From TrEMBL:
The keyword Repeat applies. It comes from Snodgrassella alvi. NCBIfam families: Rhs_assc_core (TIGR03696). This is Teneurin-like YD-shell domain-containing protein. Residues 4-207 form the Teneurin-like YD-shell domain.
């Protein structure tokens, strides 16, 4: 049941919200979580009530809204079991806690949130390099040592909920979707400016940037496999995309009954009202220039692009189990619209002319 995009019931989970639209309680079988927020709408404390016991956890942020500490709270209100975090801009690069070594995180490049490796420093000041092996969306699936031995592995449902987690060695791995950190005490993922609940594939708080992030203020992304939202603000493309065209721009999507020429195959179709049928077909793009089927000029849509409302991207190549050629992606409308509107949205994307094939 959904009212104002606020999910109240899903399977064994029950939710209540406060006057600001923030999740106030989450009730599951055997436990109830109570969420408390500060004046900036940041989660500051969680109280977990189970039969016969109650636990409290606190969260601390810096002036830029980045979480720098999490801890448990004893009966006298004093913090203990602190885990502290260091940041480089809006990327978490180090954590230090009582039950695990100091971990330094390295990402695949300076603009990415996809982890490449972590360097653990133990109590004897010895350093150990661990390597991440990630899914298409950058979510870690395995952690190995320098010799390739699997130390940790985990499988996930589409929206990030754990299916099966194995620690082959006593090592904890909490990175999830790009920009997310698992809080094992609550099961929530800290997502920089919000918290994400993998049980329902939604955020626990409405989008801080309001409707600029989309009409659904709690939505993570159109799908969890090919989209990412490392800051908890708006979803972005998870890889570069390339499309053929002329020197000025990519080729316009071909729409049957609108701009289709004889002998051409349509990308999209119109309904009886002259509107594009949504979620069926779209403009083709590829993950690498080499995969483009045509020669000539081509353009790049950079990784991390935030798409406007009403259009989305899906990766549907055979390399990810789809029916299209390897590396294929489709840029498509998510609602019925005039052909001119979709072409305008498509051309408004920040395409960059890269070269000629």
């Amino acid at each position: 049941m959904i009212r104002c995009n606020q999910l109240l019931h899903f399977r064994s989970h029950h939710y209540r919200y406060d006057e600001h639209g923030r999740t106030q309680t989450k009730q599951t079988i055997g436990a109830t979580q109570h969420y408390h927020y500060d004046a900036e709408h940041r989660l500051s404390e969680v109280r977990i009530e189970q039969t016969g016991r109650s636990q409290r956890y606190g969260y601390v942020y810096d002036a830029l809204g980045r979480r720098i500490e999490k801890h448990q709270i004893d009966r006298e209100g004093k913090p203990y079991n602190r885990t502290r975090f260091l940041w480089d801009g809006l990327r978490m690069i180090q954590e230090t806690g009582p039950n695990h070594p100091t971990s330094l995180y390295i990402y695949i490049d300076q603009n990415s949130y996809e982890p490449l490796a972590r360097i653990d420093t133990d109590g004897n000041h010895e350093q150990h390099i661990r390597y991440f092996h990630t899914d298409l969306n950058g979510c870690p699936e395995e952690l190995t040592d320098a010799n390739g031995k699997i130390l940790w592995e985990c499988s996930f449902q589409l929206w990030g909920k754990r299916i099966h987690e194995i620690e082959h060695e006593p090592i904890e791995q909490n990175l999830r979707y790009q920009g997310q950190y698992l809080d094992r005490e609550t099961g929530l993922h800290y997502n920089t400016f919000r918290y994400y609940d993998p049980d329902i594939g939604r955020f626990t708080q409405p989008d801080p940037i309001g409707l600029l992030g989309g009409l659904n203020l709690y939505q993570y992304a159109p799908n969890g496999l090919t989209w990412i939202d490392p800051l908890g603000l708006s979803c972005i493309t998870s890889s570069n995309l390339y499309a053929s065209g002329n020197k000025t721009k990519p080729r316009d999507p071909r729409i049957d009954g609108y701009n289709l020429k004889p002998g051409q195959k349509p990308d999209l179709y119109l309904d009886k009202n002259g509107l594009i049928i949504p979620n069926q077909g779209g403009a083709s793009a590829f993950k690498t220039p080499e995969q483009l089927p045509l020669t000539g000029n081509y353009h790049k849509l950079p990784e991390g692009t935030s798409l406007p409302n009403d259009i989305a991207v899906k990766y549907d190549g055979s390399d990810v189990g789809g029916k299209m050629s390897p590396g294929h992606a489709t840029i498509y409308p998510t609602k019925a619209m005039e052909p001119e509107k979709f072409i305008e949205l498509f051309n408004s994307l920040p395409w960059e002319h890269v070269g000629k094939k």
